[in-house]
Amino acid sequence: MFAKALLFLAIGIVTAMEAFGLGGFKAGSFTLMNVLAKHEFGKAILILWAAGLLGYLFWRVYETFADNEGYGKSIAGIGQRIGFCFGGLVYGFLAFKAIQVAFFSDGIDWITNSKFQDLLHTKPAQIAVVGVGLGMLGATLNEFYIAISGIFKKTIEYDKIPANYQKWVVACGRIGYTSRGITVGIAALLLMNTAYTNQDISSANKEAAFSFMQYAFGSFILGMIAIGFIIYSIYVFIEVRYRRIDMAQNKTP
Asked: Could you tell me the pTM of the whole model?
């Protein structure tokens, strides 16, 4: 979770700097990795960061099968557990990409390969891409639901947070999840657009979503979303300290 927090913090800072004319750049996860790899100790940092994300992957997959938080076998519970697994796999892919960038400076980017792009424009692949896009839109609605309902408080030991800071923790969570939802929603629309246009599927990411925000709504809105990412990272850092982790073996049958 600490590795996840660092990712959102870095993306938020450099994107906010670009939006407000302070240098920086619109950063997706992959762009950030490539920039980091060019700096001294950057590759070592990428490897350590990847190790952290692989830990996150293991934990999420464990949650899916062990049901240590007691979501049960209802449709809603199974959906939530599948969401854990999918989220873990996303960060697992980022870990794989970080290792790839660290060890192969030239990059092995099969996503931008012309043959792969041709394959994506076949009818079955187009349907699959749209399906993934619709799934991302579903994830967008879930992000907004989490933000509005404040349900994220159930995953942390809220009562152990000092009373003076509890409302700020909730505010950070609401702002962070809303910023994530907006970005994922735009990325989903961009992804579905690639299925029926000549756009490269690799452009359907956070970086492309940030570029779209800046073009459509201006640099100020982009800056606000980037600050939202920074605020979300603060919430995740707090979650690192207060996360409620109930091991399955501690539950009564």
From this structure: 0.80
**How is residue 1 written in tokens?**
């979770």
Q: Which 3-state string (H, E, C) describes 83-115?
A: HHHHHHHHHHHHHHHHHHHHHCCCCCCHHHCHH
DSSP letter for 74, please.
S
Instruction: Give the relative orientation of helices 29-37 and 42-66 as an angle to the nearest 10 degrees.
Output: 140
Contacts for 227 with CB less than 8 Å, ≥ 6 apart = 12, 16
CA 241/CA 14 separation, integer angstroms: 25
Strand (E) or helix (H) holding 44: helix 42-66
Q: What separation in angstroms does the CA of 54 have from each of 44, 58, 122, 234, 244?
A: 15, 6, 33, 21, 20
144, 164 Cβ separation under 8 angstroms: no
Q: Is the pLDDT of residue 169 over 90?
A: yes
4 and 71 Cβ atoms separated by less than 8 Å? no
pLDDT tens figures, 175-227: 999 999 999 888 888 888 877 766 665 555 677 788 888 888 888 998 999 99
d(CA 227, CA 218) in angstroms, rounded, equals 15
